[in-house]
Amino acid sequence: MALGRALSVAVAGVDGQLVEIEADIGQGLPSVNLVGLPDAALQESRNRVRSAVANIGEKWPDGRVILALSPATLPKLGSVYDLALAVAVLDASGAVPGERLSKTVMLGELALDGRVRRVKGILPAVIAARNAGVPAVVVPADAVAEAALVEGVEVLGATGLRAVVAWLRGEGSLLEPDRVVAGAVVPCGDLSDVVGQDEARWALEVAAAGGHHLLLTGPPGIGKTMLAQRLPGLLPPLTENEALEVTAIHSLAGTLSAEQPLMTTAPFVAPHHSASVTAMIGGGSPMARPGAVSRAHRGVLFLDECAELGTKVLEALRTPLEEGEVRIARRDGVARFPARFQLVLAANPCPCAPARDVDCICAPLARRRYLGKLSGPLLDRIDIWVRMHGHTGAAFAETEAEGSAAVAERVAQARQRAVERWRSDGWSTNAEVPGHVLRQRIRLPAESVAPIETALRSGRMSARGADRAVRVAWTVCDLRGGDLPSAQDVLSALNFRQRGAQ
């Protein structure tokens, strides 16, 4: 009887856990038994691994082979364990020494000819290996650049099982990562492309400076989509930790580029209005995958024609908006995905959507029902509402509108003021600050909050809406360079919450 060991990683959500793979070769009829809660894809790996080992010229054991994945109670999903299973069997048969193998995590799917194929979730798996104290990780050659984003662990790339076996024997070397190339900046247009709409442009600047959610309503062709698409160009670049966090999510989703794996700019995600709850929030079987809200983490989630989305889809946004996280429960556990994004909603005022309100042919009940899909609790979580109107002749104005660069500079300065104010608490934008902190730690003058108090007493605003108005007031204050929101700043914030109903 011979025993071999190898290491791999199981990823659930954005969290990974080290998995130990044991291979036992015993007497009996030739067979391969896989234990440790494997899914269907992992069960099929028995045939892939056996063919890969034989096709690189190594001998597969003649007896009974038992492959155990520990912890046994943790579900094992996917084909990421193929490489580790193969080298564990070769270790048990004495074909490779175990010195390097015991200190290395193996990740990758095997082809029948022994090639190592890329799998999803390499980045969170490497992070989990580093956190577990493993000094080295072997990944598919196509994923070397992605894995190299993690510092504190040696990353090596393998094109095939034969190269891994030679490296374990000390007879060859594996690929080492080159300099990591940052993700390319995706052109999102310039704010100067939007003509007129001064009120909406100012609202977009406030939303970018404070990380606030935004609702744009108005007739078609007025510039709602253009404004939303230019919001990422106003946001500051992602910090190092944010970039790694966003990249890990897109690694799980399989949307990373092999040439430029690191995402350094705020993502922009715009799902179609026919998207399901699973596509929006995340899910799937047997392994939960990140949805649109998680792929928009630290960026912008734009829902165009939001009144056309299903009511269940819209209501499912309420928890991520409040908590900045998605937790998807499955039979075998809970997958957690971060989802702290800026929501931008765009909608026509009614189904017929005329260029002028006087031309509307919809019945009053139809108009109310159209935007009625946006429930009160959901609208209460939107900080800024803007009703956009047409401007005759704006497209032929002689002066060019202000561009994104100038606005982004003001946004960066305002965000820096917010970072300095909330640094000790770890918040980077005003939108992240809890309401009780705004009410208790830094009290605004009585004359400044008087309009909010009046709105609360009259029932025109909820306590959540009052907290969001104060957050917007702080952002307006930061944009003008003030130290404390004035009464005018508070009135501006309240005005933002009333324009959408006009």
TrEMBL record:
<dbReference type="InterPro" id="IPR025158">
    <property type="entry name" value="Mg_chelat-rel_C"/>
</dbReference>
<feature type="domain" description="AAA+ ATPase">
    <location>
        <begin position="210"/>
        <end position="389"/>
    </location>
</feature>
<dbReference type="InterPro" id="IPR027417">
    <property type="entry name" value="P-loop_NTPase"/>
</dbReference>
<dbReference type="Pfam" id="PF01078">
    <property type="entry name" value="Mg_chelatase"/>
</dbReference>
<dbReference type="GO" id="GO:0005524">
    <property type="term" value="F:ATP binding"/>
</dbReference>
<dbReference type="InterPro" id="IPR003593">
    <property type="entry name" value="AAA+_ATPase"/>
</dbReference>
<dbReference type="InterPro" id="IPR014721">
    <property type="entry name" value="Ribsml_uS5_D2-typ_fold_subgr"/>
</dbReference>
<dbReference type="InterPro" id="IPR020568">
    <property type="entry name" value="Ribosomal_Su5_D2-typ_SF"/>
</dbReference>
<comment type="similarity">
    <text>Belongs to the Mg-chelatase subunits D/I family. ComM subfamily.</text>
</comment>
<dbReference type="InterPro" id="IPR004482">
    <property type="entry name" value="Mg_chelat-rel"/>
</dbReference>
<dbReference type="Pfam" id="PF13335">
    <property type="entry name" value="Mg_chelatase_C"/>
</dbReference>
<dbReference type="InterPro" id="IPR000523">
    <property type="entry name" value="Mg_chelatse_chII-like_cat_dom"/>
</dbReference>
<dbReference type="InterPro" id="IPR045006">
    <property type="entry name" value="CHLI-like"/>
</dbReference>
<protein>
    <recommendedName>
        <fullName>AAA+ ATPase domain-containing protein</fullName>
    </recommendedName>
</protein>
<dbReference type="Pfam" id="PF13541">
    <property type="entry name" value="ChlI"/>
</dbReference>
